[in-house]
Amino acid sequence: MSDSAEAGPRQRPRVEGGREDEILDATVVVVAELGYDRLTMDAVATAAKASKATLYRRWSTKAELVVDAISRAKGCSVQEDVDTGSLRGDLISLACSEGGFTSEMPMSVMAGLLTALHRDADLQKAFKERFLAPRVAITNGVYARAVQRGEIGADVDVELLAQTLPALIIHHAFVLGVEPTEDLILRVIDHVILPAARGSQVS
């Protein structure tokens, strides 16, 4: 194996000016309309009025292009860290603000990716590393602070608890077909997350 291969993928050149943002915006629109499986570099190039060669100079696969696009798109971008002073406030802020579960774009994009995530290794890897990882890090920080404030019982599985809100919202949205409204999110937080967080603590 060559030294360059061992060093990992090289940094590919960026597209000049505002064209990269235009291409990424077009990619989000196409994946929301067609889904990941039917999306092609040709379709994105046509939507963005760019050449396919331009796309391939910047992104070697459609998985890289799609994940880069959804990670930076308006309505999908990850928040800066949030600290309202309480677990409830933090969860509401994360889930109900731009980029949260009530944003139309993230859910429509997720619908377009869902069928491909479990069987496309390139997409799964890029999605976990570049889309999920920063969001998981912020959520973990929210729960870590809640532990420090004494809002979470010592016997609670914090890692599992942190996955509960997104799991329930995604189940409602894509299995039951229930829109992830703010009311639904508050119900999950108030009737599932917070009671579970207390664990065996005496109320």
UniProtKB/TrEMBL annotation:
UniProt keyword list: DNA-binding, Transcription, Transcription regulation
Organism: Kribbella qitaiheensis
Residue ranges of the TM segments: none
Lineage: Bacteria, Bacillati, Actinomycetota, Actinomycetes, Propionibacteriales
Gene3D superfamilies: Homeodomain-like, Tetracycline Repressor, domain 2
InterPro entries per record: DNA-bd_HTH_TetR-type_CS, Homeodomain-like_sf, HTH-type_TetR-like_transc_reg, HTH_TetR, Tet_transcr_reg_TetR-rel_C_sf, TetR_C
One Pfam family per UniProt: TetR_C_11
Protein name: TetR family transcriptional regulator
Organism domain of life: Bacteria
Gene Ontology MF term list: DNA-binding transcription factor activity; transcription cis-regulatory region binding
Residue stretches making up the HTH tetR-type domain: 17-77
DNA-binding region positions on the chain: 40-59
